[in-house]
């Protein structure tokens, strides 16, 4: 029995920021807006079958749905808790511009993890309004909110990755990096893309710095994930049958990403069963395409044991073009290899008992590795 489901809800694809790299590309010009009634039907269908419901509000820019929309959705979640005894975990991914006191308080009251897209000192290379977004992060924190910066790194910033990490650490802002991918506008304007060799070099330098930085006061989500990677474990167990999305057109799709609109799984209704979306012919058709791609891309890839095909499957949800898929797969493969090599060095140090220099996070993550000869 599966208890968990992750819903992505995109109230609109419209956006009030003009990011040069956005994977939604010209879809941002679409004007549909999902009605709150449809959103509630979708949420209730999840509650009928699952006990842990993760909801991510995304877009486009989700704040454009307006505060009243979220007041209704969160009030409805409370009804669902009473009716089905479910647990909700809410995430809200926003550019931050329209976060006012009322919305922040509502999100905080509903224990929402607020992901604010913010690239630190290099924010204005891809986006606008650096100071305003930075202030919004401060406002969320001042109200006791859980905030995490989503920092996209691109040609305009990646050479400064260590500096970017220090910048977030000094300001005590948890963050995650999103390496730019050739999708949407970034697939057209390839000037924004990083040189992969150089990126891997900078990434490993920064990872090496972080693993020994005992002054780290923040959560650096990307590197925490790196530190959990092992050669004999899978990066992510498959996320099929665990995620499903509602798009602004009021229809259901596998992940709510630009290229999965070819697999419409239906519409919310009073008798919708999400589990039957996963057994529908369209979902099966998608799985068939992905299985074929894994056959093509993963067979000769050294990282496939760890990545388990997640790289190619996730990329296909954004783009279909072979060259773009190869770019993303190659970048992921190089990241896995570089990180696993460093993790091997850490493991060897731990086996020799040389743990002194490492940060507490690394000591915790590698805590099961003991000095040779000692009991485990
Ligand atoms: C598409 S936005 C949508 C939600 C909201 N409007 C926001 O700005 O956070 C979500 C995140 O995806 C990232 N993103 C968009 N296009 C990307 C690309 N081509 N490569 C990597 N990340 C990208 C953005 O930088 C942003 O942090």
Write the layout of secondary structure elements.
Blueprint: E1 4-9, H1 36-49, E2 52-57, H2 67-84, E3 87-94, H3 101-109, E4 113-117, H4 123-126, H5 130-142, E5 146-153, H6 161-170, E6 175-179, H7 185-188, H8 196-211, H9 221-228, E7 243-246, E8 252-253, H10 274-278, H11 281-298, H12 304-307, H13 310-316, H14 322-351, H15 360-365
Parallel strand pairs: 1-2, 1-7, 2-3, 3-4, 4-5, 5-6
Antiparallel strand pairs: 7-8
The protein binds S-adenosylmethionine.
Q: How many beta-strand runs?
A: 8
Structural class: alpha/beta
Provide a count of the helices.
15
The oligomeric state of the chains shown is: single chain
Which homologous superfamily in CATH is the superfamily?
Aldolase class I
Radius of gyration: 21 Å
Widest sheet: strand ordering? 6-5-4-3-2-1-7-8
CATH class: Alpha Beta
Tell me the count of domains.
1
Q: Can you summarize the main beta sheet? A: 8 strands, mixed
In the CATH classification, which architecture applies?
Alpha-Beta Barrel
**CATH topology description:** TIM Barrel
The residue fraction in helices comes out at: 40-55%
Strand content: 5-15%
Topology as H/E string?
Answer: EHEHEHEHHEHEHHHEEHHHHHH
Which hetero ligands occur in this complex? S-adenosylmethionine
End-to-end span in angstroms? 34 Å
Q: Residue-averaged pLDDT, rounded?
A: 95
Q: Globular, elongated, flat, extended or rod-shaped: what is the shape?
A: globular
